[in-house]
Amino acid sequence: MRKLKLLREYLRGSGMTYLLSMLSVLLMTVFSSMVPLVIAFTVDYVIGDKPVELPAALASRIDVASGISTIRNNLWIILAVLVVITLLQGIFMYLKGKCSAVAAQASSKRMREKLYGHLQHLPFDYHVKVQTGDIIQRCTSDIETIQNFISTQSIEALQIILQVIVVLAVMIAMDLKYTLISILLIPIVFVITVRFFINMMKVFVRADEAEGHMTATLQENLAGVRVVKAFGAQNFEMEKFDEKNRTHRDLNMDIVRIMANFYGGTDLMCMLQHALVIAVGTYWVVRGQVTIGTVVAFSSYAGMLVWPLRNLGQMMGFMGQAFVSLGRIQEILDNKPEDYTTGETPPVQGEIVFEDVHFEYEKGKPVLDGATFRIEKGQTVAILGATGAGKSSLVHLLLRLYDYKKGSIRIDGVELKRISRQWIRKHIGIVLQEPFLFSKTIRENIGIGCGRVEEDRILAAARTACVDEAIQEFGMGYDTLVGERGVTLSGGQRQRIAIARTIIRDVPILIFDDSLSAVDAETDARIRKALRERRKDTTTIIISHRITTLAEADRILVLDQGRIIQSGTHEELIKVDGPYRRIWEIQSALGDEMEEMTV
């Protein structure tokens, strides 16, 4: 029922076009069922000598004999009638195909847009847990499956149902006994068809999931092709893909076997039914129980009943596949999006207060355990900590990618949970260690979050990020196309372009999540100096493992297992025993060794 509801939602906005297609199917079916009647009439009453039997009221008003004589002398009339019927049938067949295709294309466009928009507003946690390739497959292949079902298979299924109803009605009106003989094997065909549908549904689910896993493996490999080549892992990746590919092939072979058995069995049943109609009709003609025209008509009608019902199994198989795809799409839509419509929009100046904040991704595994600190407006605070200490989790909470379980986070005195997600993210700029660049020009990548932006602002942001000179060295400068994920640039260039993209927004809070790790110490110092000169009142959070980067901060926080274990300036922290001093001593010793080697 939910899938039918989603299908109705899918067709919203194209309902009238789809109804016109259904009306065309009905009219096309009516006209196609008239052809055997015209042929039977010609055989029995025009070519043959069987008298036309009409009700007395009509017989007194219509000169039937004269009419039949006229037709005998002008057989082109029969041909003209058949041509007109066929022409009308063709017109409605064209309208059926066109209207259903238009409705399906428009509906698919809307559903893709709805899915894309829904995915954009799903929580960060959802995107962390799902496979990108599987989501892509649901938004492309599954949508295409539903589109084909709407444009072709659903209309053909409707045509079969209407044709069975119309043809059965005509056959019963002509001869009830002969009709029963003509549908003798149809219940068996129908039972086989239902069993086929049930079996196909089960296999389609597994095959669709296998295709999603295969797509995810392919997407992951192509995205990480540089790592694959660097580690010489091509054979390993090929074996992994081969495994997914074999599973997908085996499941599709199961589908082929089920379909082969179904078509082989039902073809035999349909041919037996057709042979039975002709054999019984011939016997009854010899005995004078039916006319030759009736046998000709029933022979045509038997084909119009049995073969479409057999094809209904295929249509049901496609329907099963479409319902599987609808279910996979519904799984995405069932995930609750983030709330962007509610929340306060207070002025954001840059004061940040963490007070006894607790947070965990998995129950019983705390990531932040009573984190408490204060950052004044315009202050630069550096955070140092081992991998897994909770540094990035602090950033996730500030951006409301996750909400803390206990404690309080206040931005300029306002509880963070009360502030609109969209509003807080609009006022925080973040540069990640592994920045994502889009496959656009460098200019578009820098200005991507600002809409139309003046050239001067782009150049100023690039100079602040110390990447202007590197860009100018490219053949097309700022119009240079960046490869997918920025693969054509070095790690340092990507980071600096990401920094320029962030600082061009002029936000009151800046976060650098180990985003200077790929640049040398000299460039690092130049960038930090330029940032200080550009926005002296910006609150800046720097997460780094490089002491030279941390040393110039107004305050340094040392994080360990979700707790702040040290806090102070560089000068204060190197005077006391602790993690910060030990790291400083190690990096200082390494720096001295490097200087000695270069002398």
Automatic annotation (TrEMBL):
The keyword Transmembrane applies. CDD domains: ABC_6TM_YknU_like. Residues 352-586 form the ABC transporter domain. GO terms for molecular function: ABC-type oligopeptide transporter activity; ATP binding; ATP hydrolysis activity. It is a multi-pass membrane protein. It is found in: Cell membrane. InterPro entries: AAA+_ATPase, ABC1_TM_dom, ABC1_TM_sf, ABC_transporter-like_ATP-bd, ABC_transporter-like_CS, P-loop_NTPase, Type_1_exporter. Keywords: ATP-binding, Cell membrane, Membrane, Nucleotide-binding, Transmembrane, Transmembrane helix, Transport. Pfam families: ABC_membrane (PF00664), ABC_tran (PF00005). SMART domains: AAA. The keyword Nucleotide-binding applies. Residues 19-321 form the ABC transmembrane type-1 domain. GO terms for cellular component: plasma membrane. PANTHER family: ATP-BINDING CASSETTE SUB-FAMILY B MEMBER 10, MITOCHONDRIAL (PTHR43394:SF1), ATP-DEPENDENT PERMEASE MDL1, MITOCHONDRIAL (PTHR43394). This is ATP-binding cassette, subfamily B. It comes from Thermoclostridium caenicola. The lineage of its organism: Bacteria, Bacillati, Bacillota, Clostridia, Eubacteriales.
